[in-house]
Amino acid sequence: MDLIFIDTNIYLRFFDSNSKEFKRLLDDLIIVKSNIFVTNQIINEIERNKLNVFNKSISNYKKNVKISEVNLPEHIDGNNTRKLEEWNNKRRRIEEDNEKLIKELDVIFEENISNISISKDNVSLKLKSIFQNISHASSEEITLARIRKEIGNPPGKKEDPIGDQITWEQLLNKIPQINRIWIITNDFDFYSKFKTTCYLNPYLSQELLNKHSEIEINIFESLSDGLRHFFNFNKIHSKISEADFKKVIEEEKTLLRNSVESSNITSVGYDSKNKILEVEFKHGSVYQYFDVPENIYTELMNANSHGFYFSANIRNNYEYQKV
């Protein structure tokens, strides 16, 4: 049997993306839902976080649709033409129309927020249809997860609950019946990346091999790449056209920020298309750094001390803006 394990942050991307092509990946997930390994813990994490993810997303949309106020100096008009005054009046009407649109947008967003809060939105409904075979943790798996966290073995972060550890213990118990596994995650607790290839953490890899010495492990950091590989391997036809798939790949290059263990950094995200590194600090501020090579982002995420690497290699080396 082939198994697909998808990390929570990948699912949450559906509540953040504004791409209709990306949403179509949900239809491909429905095709392979019998191969998807999902735990009650993953579902709970999605439910806890999806509304906040959507809220952050729409706040960015509202910033982008707002037109800044402009008023040109009418008193310098010559020959009584009043051209600047006329331009100001036209501009003011555009600003008023824009304000009306923003108010309409607020009503639409409130409706969507309400639907998400009761899981009646389209994404939640499709995910519900995908999550058919839900694994529930046993008391032994929870105990092993607590020990894993206390020892400091991956996955999971010190300051987080034991959700990742519980899910991994459940996954390990599933492995003896599995021939091939596809792991799809953008959490560096699970993997490291060199150039374009992802490598599973050696400790986690060995645990899988201990359960099944001949298991084939495939790991991807984007849902589109992981599903495409799975579909090609199993000769399954995707519902997404090649042209739309390219758009999906571009969309996934802008990732959600990933939490990191650091005394001064909360989370880090990277837009590989535009080479923008986004850093959220403990005090709540978010900064974007421009023209940052992808290898710098990868090294930051793999560093023993994220804060030290950031200070030494990023803080004063790139142009930035506060978000």
Provide structural commentary.
The protein is an alpha/beta fold. It folds into 2 domains: 2-58 and 127-251, Rossmann fold (3-Layer(aba) Sandwich), CATH 3.40.50; 257-322. Helices cover 50% and strands 16% of the residues. The protein is built from 13 helices and 12 strands. It has helices at residues 8-12, 20-23, 25-31, 40-65, 83-117, 122-130, 139-151, 163-174, 202-211, 223-233, 242-252, 294-302, 306-313, and strands at residues 2-6, 36-39, 134-135, 180-184, 191-194, 197-200, 216-220, 258-259, 265-271, 276-281, 286-289, 320-322. The strands form 3 sheets. Strands 3-2-1-4-7 form a 5-stranded parallel sheet, sandwiched between helices. It has a 5-stranded antiparallel sheet with strand order 8-9-10-11-12, with helices on one face. The chain is globular.
In the CATH hierarchy, what is the architecture of the largest domain at level 2? 3-Layer(aba) Sandwich
Helix content: 40-55%
How many domains make up the 3D coordinates?
A: 2
Provide mean pLDDT, rounded.
Answer: 89
Please describe the biggest sheet, giving its number of strands, its sense, and whether it closes into a barrel. 5 strands, parallel
Numbering strands along the chain, what is their spatial order in the largest sheet? 3-2-1-4-7
Q: Estimate the global geometry from the Cα principal axes.
A: globular
Radius of gyration, rounded? 23 Å
Unreliable segments of 5+ consecutive residues: none
* CATH top level class name of the largest domain: Alpha Beta
Number of strands: 12
Roughly how many Å apart are the termini? 46 Å
Number of helices, where a helix is a run of at least 4 consecutive DSSP H or I residues? 13
The secondary structure category is: alpha/beta
- Fill in the CATH topology of the largest domain: Rossmann fold
Secondary-structure element string:
EHHHEHHHEHHEEEHEHHEEEEHHE
| Percent strand | 15-25%
